[in-house]
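Why BLUF domain-containing protein? Reviewers of the renewal asked for a concrete example.
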Amino acid sequence: MHHLLYLSSATRSYDESHLLALHTQMHRTNQATGVSSLLLYGQGHFLQLLEGEHATLQQMLARIQRDVRHHELTPLFHYQCPERCFEATHISCYAPSPSLSQLDGFLPLEQVTTHCYRESYTHLPALQTVHAFAHQLLDATAAPVQR
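Here is what the prediction returned.
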């Protein structure tokens, strides 16, 4: 089992319908390849954690690098891990619509931060990065403090 984490800039803004379509495509691809994943979207960026066999993840990364939805794609981590952290295809974003929030596989950012900070995952660098990115998105959407 391996983790592969990348960060990319979105080539355009993604609304609810685009994110729903992306989740459907990811779910089909992941089921066919035996990969689980978490995709975070916010502030014009994608951060995706992929979990699966090394060769499969390398092939997926090559395909994602050619995908027109991404530019400035930067692989951050690729390492062997003891187990999956996510059992399915998940998506999370800041300011989700009500219908996106009801999607099977949607995780609120607060749940992402909690899940990634479980004691058994704190030594995994990809999960630490996902945790920090989710917190950054939460902080960006927090209301300003009134003085």
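The first strand starts at residue 2 and ends at 10. This is the kind of structural detail the renewal will allow us to pursue systematically.
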